[in-house]
């Protein structure tokens, strides 16, 4: 008879969640999130983002949380309000909350790992009191 292997404390345990080499084997013209962290009870959001050669993620204001990215493959540029940062394999960049950014992929495309605290879901509440 098999033992019940459930965790009696309901404590989350470390687990293997993916293989970077497998994810990066996606076609070179892939764009968007090609991997994301799946456990629903996690405290982090993690993604691997692919931008096809010559494409971009248009200028936008980031979320109300800090984000760290690590370039896994390719190269490109990160345009901010103050400067343009050259991105290449191995670059690690901190994006402060609400910072403005635009990612532009180079000739070989750009793939980066992104991690930040999990965004809060939509909250249903009462409307503000009006006088």
From TrEMBL:
<dbReference type="InterPro" id="IPR014710">
    <property type="entry name" value="RmlC-like_jellyroll"/>
</dbReference>
<dbReference type="Pfam" id="PF07883">
    <property type="entry name" value="Cupin_2"/>
</dbReference>
<dbReference type="InterPro" id="IPR011051">
    <property type="entry name" value="RmlC_Cupin_sf"/>
</dbReference>
<feature type="domain" description="Cupin type-2">
    <location>
        <begin position="49"/>
        <end position="115"/>
    </location>
</feature>
<dbReference type="InterPro" id="IPR013096">
    <property type="entry name" value="Cupin_2"/>
</dbReference>
<protein>
    <submittedName>
        <fullName>Cupin domain protein</fullName>
    </submittedName>
</protein>
């Amino acid at each position: 008879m098999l033992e019940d292997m459930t965790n009696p404390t309901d404590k989350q345990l470390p687990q293997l969640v993916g293989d970077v080499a497998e994810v990066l084997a996606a076609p070179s013209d892939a764009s968007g999130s090609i991997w994301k962290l799946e456990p629903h009870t996690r405290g982090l959001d993690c993604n691997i983002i692919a931008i096809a050669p010559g494409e971009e993620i248009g200028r936008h204001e980031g979320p109300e949380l800090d984000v760290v990215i690590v370039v896994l493959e390719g190269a490109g540029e990160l345009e901010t309000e103050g400067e343009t940062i050259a991105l290449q394999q191995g670059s690690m960049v901190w994006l402060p909350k609400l910072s403005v950014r635009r990612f532009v992929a180079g000739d070989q495309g750009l793939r980066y790992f992104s991690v930040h605290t999990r965004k809060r879901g939509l909250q249903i509440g009462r409307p503000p009191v009006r006088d």
